[in-house]
Amino acid sequence: MSKKYTFIDLFAGCGGFSEGFYQEKFESVVHVDFDAPACETVKERMRYYNYSENAIESAVICGDLTSDDVHKQIDSVISNRQVDVLVGGPPCQTFSSVGRAQDKNSMRNDPRNYLFRSYLEILEKHKPKIFVFENVSGLLSAKPNGNYIFPEIVENMSEYYSLCDDRGTILLNSVHYGVPQIRKRVILIGVRKDLKINPLDIYKAIEKTHYSPDMVVNNETLGLQKYLTVEDAISDLPKLLPGEGQEEVEHEIAIKNSFTRIVRPNGFSKLYNHVARKHNNMDQQRYELLSKNKWQLKDLAKTRPDLIHHDPKHFGNRYTVQVADKPGRTVVAHLYKDGNLFIHPDHKQKRTFTVREAARVQSFPDDFKFVGSRTNQYKQVGNAVPPLMARQIAKAIKTFLV
C-alpha cells in the first residue's frame, strides 16, 4: 500500500489547489478560508472523497488567518502530525495590475498586502517538507509600501527553505498543463533545507503537456499537444438563453473530446451549477452583436452607438467575447459582479458564462459541486487555482517525497 502524503491548504477558497492534490491521493489535514460558502464547498468535496463528518468538521476552519484563535485551531488539528506539503495563495487583488489601476493609492494601504505573513507564520511553526505559494504575476512588480514586496517574501521564506526566485522558472501558465485557459501565476516552491532537494528539480518535473498559442509563433511546439480551447471546454453543455438553467440537471455526452474525457467522470450523468444570468434587453443585444461579429466595444460603437454606455477608449476590454478556438482568458473573481469579460462565443445564446462554463475553463471536474449563492459560486471559481495545474504540481512533488 502506497504511503499517504499530507497537505494543508491556506486561503483555500473552494479548494481548487486541494482538488489537484486529492487527485494525486494526498490526504488533507487542514483547510482555512474566510469565506463561509467556499468552506461549505470544500466540505462538500471532502464528502465526495469519503472523509468522515468528524474529519471534515475539524479539518475545515472558516476564519481569519490573522486571528490567534484560528492559529490555535490549526495547531490543535495538526498537533504532532508531520505535514508533507503546505499550499496556498493569499488574496491577490492587491497585487494584480487591474486592482492597482482601479485604486487611487494603487492599493498601498490595503491590509491584504501583508496576508502572506500569516502564511509565513504557519510555514515557520509547522515546517512542512515542501511548500507551494501561489499568486498573480503582479506580485513580482507590487510595491505596496514603496518597496518591492516579492524580495521580502523570498527573504522571509529562505530562512528554513531552499527556493528558486528566477522569474522565468516560477511563472507558470495553466494552458501548458491541459487547462483551456491562459492563466499566468507565480508558483513559489520551497524545500526544507534539511531535505537536500533542489527546488529546480521539482520545477523540471512539473510536466508541460500542451503548447500555448505563442509557442506556435516561436516554433516551440515539438512533442506537446495542441492547447485546449473554449470550444473544447464548453461546447457539449446545454444551450441556455438568459435566465435559463438549473442547479442540477441530467446531462450525457455522446462523444467526449480529450478535455471532457478528463473532467467528465465515466458514468456521471448530472450537471451542476449551469444556470445563466438574467440579462436585460440592451445587454442581450450587445452580447449577440459582439459575439456574432467577434467585435470589441469600439466596433460596436461605430454601428450601434445607442448600445454604448462605456467610453470605448477607456473601457475597450469592458466587454469581451471568449474566442471559441483559443484558450479562455484568465477567469477572475470579478466574474461575481458581472460576466461582461466572459461573453459566450455562441451569439445565439446572447449571454455571459454560467458558473459551470467558468468552472470548465478552470478545469474543475463536472462532479465538483459549488455551494452557496450563484454570485458567491462565481467568486469561488474566479479565485481558484485550476485543478489540473495543481495536479501536475502535486504529481511532481510526490516524486520527491520519501
TrEMBL record:
Bilayer-spanning residue ranges: none
Record carries keyword tRNA-binding: no
Top class in the EC scheme: transferase
Methyltransferase is among the record's keywords: yes
Protein keywords: Methyltransferase, Restriction system, S-adenosyl-L-methionine, Transferase
GO molecular function, one term: DNA binding
Active site: 92
EC number: 2.1.1.37
Alphabetical GO biological process terms: DNA restriction-modification system; methylation; negative regulation of gene expression via chromosomal CpG island methylation
Domain of life: Bacteria
NCBIfam families: dcm
Protein name per Swiss-Prot or TrEMBL: Cytosine-specific methyltransferase
Origin organism lineage: Bacteria, Pseudomonadati, Bacteroidota, Flavobacteriia, Flavobacteriales
